[in-house]
Amino acid sequence: MNTNTIEALPIAIENHSFFCNEQRMWNLNEIHRVLNLHDNKAPSQWNNKVREALSNSGNFQSIEGKNGGTWATEKGAIAYAMWVSPEFFEMVVDAFIFMRNDAVLRERVAVLQADEANAELSIAAPKADIFDGRLARGGAVPWSWACKALGLAPFKLREGLKRSGKFILPAFSDQKNPYPPKAAFELGYFVWKIDANGEKNWQVTARGYAWMQENASKWRELITHDDRQKAAAKRAAKRSRKVAV
C-alpha cells in the first residue's frame, strides 16, 4: 500500500503528536522545541553532506515567513534524528512505523464504509479485516481500536472528553477509567460488553464511530494544543529550576 495516497496521520514521540503539512513534511523546529532537544542539535546546526543531499533532493527545506521553519519529509526527519542521537533515531523510526500501521487501519475502515453501501462488496470483504463482522453487522469495537483507526490517542482523548463533561467517572464506579454517560448508551453510541474474564467493558458501535469521525479532526487539534501547553509548562519549570540553582 502506498500511504502517500491517503492523509498522513500524526507521528507520536514521547506522548507528543506532530502533524505534517500538505507536502507531507514535518516541522523539525517544532520537534526540537517540544521535545527539549539540546541546543546544539537544532535543525539549523545540522550541516553535513547528508543534509546537503536531502536539500538538493527536496527532502529538507528551510522556509521563511509566518509558517516558516525547517521542514523535512519522512526520509529527512529520520536522517535528522540519526544525527541527533542513536536513541532519538530509534524513537523517530518507531513513530513512523506506528503511524504507517495506523494508516493501514484507516484505509481498512474506508473500505469497510464502502462495503456497507454495497452488500455484494461486503460479502466479498476479507474476513481478516479488523472491523469485519462488528461495525458492519451492527456489532461494536473496543475504544482503542476506534481511536487508532482515526489517529487518536485513546487515553488522551478519554481524559479530554472527561474534562469537557462528555465522559464521566463517578466516585463509586466499578470502572477504572472515564466512560460515556448513560444517555450515550441509550442513544446507541456505545454498548456494554462482558469479556471472557467476566469483566464489564464498553465498546463503540457504528453510530458511535460515526460521531467520533465527525469530531476526530477537532480532537486531534485539541490534543496537540494540550501537548504543546504541557511542553511549554515543562520548559518553564526547567528554566525555573536552573534559575533557582
Which whole number gives the mean pLDDT?
81
What CATH first level of the largest domain would be assigned? Alpha Beta
Question: What is the approximate shape?
Answer: elongated
What amount of the residues lies in strands?
Answer: 5-15%
Could you name the CATH topology of the largest domain? Mlu1-box Binding Protein, DNA-binding Domain
Strand line-up of the largest beta sheet: 3-5-4
Structure description:
With 245 residues, this protein is α+β, with helices and mostly antiparallel strands. The chain has 2 domains: 3-98, Roll (Mlu1-box Binding Protein, DNA-binding Domain); 133-217, no CATH class. 51% of the residues lie in helices and 12% in strands. A 3-stranded antiparallel β-sheet has the order 3-5-4. The protein has a 3-stranded antiparallel β-sheet with strand order 6-8-7. A two-stranded antiparallel sheet has the order 1-2. β4 and β5 (69-72) form a beta hairpin. α3 runs antiparallel to α4 (86-116).
In short:
This protein is α+β, with helices and mostly antiparallel strands and 245 residues long. Helices cover 51% and strands 12% of the residues.
List the helices and strands and how they pair.
Blueprint: E1 11-13, E2 16-18, E3 26-27, H1 28-34, H2 49-56, E4 60-63, E5 69-72, H3 74-84, H4 86-116, H5 119-124, E6 140-142, H6 143-149, H7 154-163, H8 182-186, E7 190-194, E8 200-205, H9 206-244
Antiparallel strand pairs: 1-2, 3-5, 4-5, 6-8, 7-8
Helix pairs in contact: 3-4
